[in-house]
Amino acid sequence: MSLVLDASVAIAWCMEEERTPAVLALLHQVTAQEAEEPQIWPLEVANILVMAARRGRVPTERVDGLLGFLRDLPVTLDEATAAQAWGATALLAERHRLSVYDAAYLELALRRDLPLATLDEALGKAAVQAGVSVLLP
């Protein structure tokens, strides 16, 4: 079974202090079965890692390797993300008081009938309310 995972989970794989057995189990699941992501995913995870390096959370010299690690995961980027932003995604953001970025993950999970993996409490709560199976590591 495939899944949608938000940036919080991917970043937890990159941050030693955030790796838990549950987070690592999701990594093994993704490498075995792949994940589907909204088109914003690479931009979001790259931005988080670059900002983490600027703030001293990640050594600058590790950023390229971490970006390569994430880039090489078996992840399929959803081609309909941009088209959905004008309607379903914006409506979900409003209904659940999410950013449009977070709502993109929820919209994809709903549209593809996939579980959503997230460490984001608000996104997880919104997903449950919307009837999406949530994997909270």
CATH class: Alpha Beta
Radius of gyration: 14 Å
Number of strands: 5
**Count of runs of 4 or more consecutive helical residues:** 7
Silhouette: globular
CATH topology: Rossmann fold
**What are the low-pLDDT stretches, counting only 5+ consecutive residues below 50?**
none
Q: Approximately how much helix is present in the residues?
A: 55-70%
Task: Please characterize this protein's 3D structure.
The chain is mainly α. The chain has one domain: 5'-nuclease (Rossmann fold, 3-Layer(aba) Sandwich). It has helices at 7-14, 21-33, 41-54, 60-71, 81-96, 100-112, 121-130, and strands at 4-5, 35-37, 75-77, 116-117, 134-135. Helix 1 (7-14) packs across helix 3, helix 5 packs across helix 6 and helix 6 (100-112) runs parallel beside helix 7. The protein is globular and about 40 Å long.
Helix and strand arrangement:
Layout: E1 4-5, H1 7-14, H2 21-33, E2 35-37, H3 41-54, H4 60-71, E3 75-77, H5 81-96, H6 100-112, E4 116-117, H7 121-130, E5 134-135
Parallel strand pairs: 1-4, 2-3, 4-5
Task: Please summarize what this structure is.
This protein is mainly alpha-helical and 137 residues long. Helices cover 63% and strands 9% of the residues.
Which features would summarize this protein structure in a list?
about 140 residues; mainly alpha; Rossmann fold; two-stranded parallel sheet; about 65% helix
